[in-house]
Design goal:
Distance between the termini: 56 Å
Helix content: 25-40%
Shape: globular
Number of strands: 11
Mean pLDDT: 94
Largest sheet: 4 strands, antiparallel
Oligomer: single chain
Structural class: alpha+beta
Order of helices and strands: HEHEEEHHHHEEEEEHHHEEHH
Radius of gyration: 20 Å
C-alpha cells in the first residue's frame, strides 16, 4: 500500500484548525520564523507586508497550525541549526543540504501559507471562488510534499530539487539580511559570518548556471554588496528559466522517493532566456539602493556593467577587502 499524504493545494485547504503539513486537526501552533532567530536579532515586533501591500503582520504574529509531531520535528531541526549557527560559516557549511532545505523551506512555505489564507479570505469576502493555476498547484504541491520529508519516509535520490550555496560573509555585528520570494520559492539569509542563498525548486540548474562565480568566491569572505549581487543573479536566473521543474516520484510501501529530472534545452529553446543588462540593472538597483547606487551608476553608455563580484575586463573575482563601502 502506497503512502497517502495531505496536499493542501488539491482542494486549497488553509484553515487554521488543520495542521499546515499533515492536515490533522490541531490546536497547536508554531511560528513561521524560528523563535530563537527573532529573539537574537530582535525583529519579532517588526512588520512584514503581504504581497499586495494591503495587509501586514508582525513577524512574531505569523504562526502556523501544526500537529504535535510536526512541532516536535521542527524543534529538533532548530536545535541542529542553532548549534551549527553558533559555529558560523563552518558550522552551517557542514550541515546536510536537506536540513538547510527544510529550515529555509519553513519560512518560505510559512509566508506562502499566509498568502494563500489571505487571498482565500479576500475572495470569500468578494463572494468569488479562490483558485490557482494548474502550474502553481503543481509547483506548490511538490514543495509541500518535499517539506513533509521532515516527518515522513520521503527521501531524495539522484539530482536534488534545489540549489543551495553557503559562503563566508562579513556584516556588522547584530545585523542580518533576509529576503524570500514565495511564488518562486527563493530564499536569502546573511549575517556576520555566513550567507546563504537557496532556490528551493530549480532542480539545481541555477546553481549550475552560477557555478563559475561560486568557485571564484571560494576562500574569500564576501562583502555585503557582493552578497546582494549574488542573490540578484540567482533571482534573475530564476526569472529567465524557461522550463518548469519536474520530478520522478515513486510511492511504495517503504515510502516515497523524489528525483529531480535534469532540466535540459529542447530544440531551439535554451534553458534560460536572453540575459538583458537593462532589466538586470533595474533589479540590482533594488538591492543596492541602500548604498546610494542607482541604475545610472550600474549601466552607462560605453562603460562596462558595474559589478562587485567580477572585474568587467579580466573577469577576475573582486577582492572584498578592496571594496570601499560600509559593512
Amino acid at each position: 500500500m502506497s503512502l497517502s499524504l495531505f496536499n493542501p493545494f488539491t482542494d486549497l485547504i488553509f484553515d487554521e484548525q488543520f495542521c499546515f503539513l499533515t492536515g490533522d486537526l490541531t490546536t497547536e501552533k508554531m511560528t513561521v520564523y524560528p523563535e530563537w532567530l527573532m529573539e537574537h536579532f530582535k525583529f519579532g515586533s517588526d512588520r512584514i507586508e503581504m504581497m499586495d501591500k494591503s495587509k501586514s503582520y508582525t513577524y512574531a504574529d505569523l504562526q502556523l497550525p501544526c500537529s504535535a509531531r510536526v512541532k516536535k520535528a521542527f524543534e529538533e531541526l532548530e536545535e541542529k541549526i542553532q548549534e551549527a549557527y553558533k559555529k558560523g560559516f563552518e558550522g552551517m557549511k557542514s550541515l546536510d543540504e536537506h536540513l538547510l532545505f527544510l529550515w529555509t523551506g519553513r519560512m518560505v512555505y510559512g509566508m506562502l501559507y499566509y498568502e494563500m489564507r489571505y487571498e482565500s479570505e479576500r475572495m470569500l469576502r468578494m463572494r468569488e471562488p479562490f483558485n490557482l493555476s494548474p502550474l502553481l498547484r503543481e509547483r506548490f504541491g511538490n514543495f509541500h510534499l518535499m517539506m513533509q520529508s521532515i516527518i515522513e519516509p520521503i527521501s531524495f535520490v539522484g539530482q536534488k530539487p534545489w540549489s543551495i550555496a553557503v559562503f563566508p560573509l562579513k556584516y556588522s555585528a547584530d545585523i542580518f539580511s533576509y529576503r524570500d520570494d514565495t511564488v518562486n520559492l527563493l530564499f536569502q539569509f546573511g549575517v556576520n559570518g555566513f550567507g546563504l542563498v537557496a532556490c528551493l525548486q530549480d532542480n539545481g540548474v541555477i546553481g549550475d548556471k552560477q557555478k563559475e562565480i561560486l568557485e571564484k568566491m571560494e576562500g574569500h569572505v564576501l562583502h555585503p554588496i557582493q552578497f546582494e549581487e549574488l542573490f540578484a543573479r540567482f533571482h534573475y536566473c530564476d526569472y529567465l528559466l524557461q522550463y518548469k521543474a519536474e520530478y520522478k516520484i515513486e510511492n511504495t510501501d517503504a515510502g516515497i522517493t523524489i528525483e529531480a529530472i535534469p532540466i535540459t534545452a529542447k530544440e531551439n529553446r535554451p534553458v534560460f532566456g536572453f540575459w538583458d543588462d537593462e532589466v538586470f540593472a533595474q533589479l540590482l538597483t533594488n538591492y543596492w539602493s541602500v548604498y546610494g547606487i542607482q541604475r545610472g551608476d550600474i549601466i552607462q553608455f560605453q562603460k562596462p556593467f558595474l559589478s562587485f563580484l567580477e572585474n568587467p575586463y579580466t573577469k577576475d573575482f573582486v577582492i572584498p577587502e578592496g571594496i570601499d563601502l560600509p559593512f
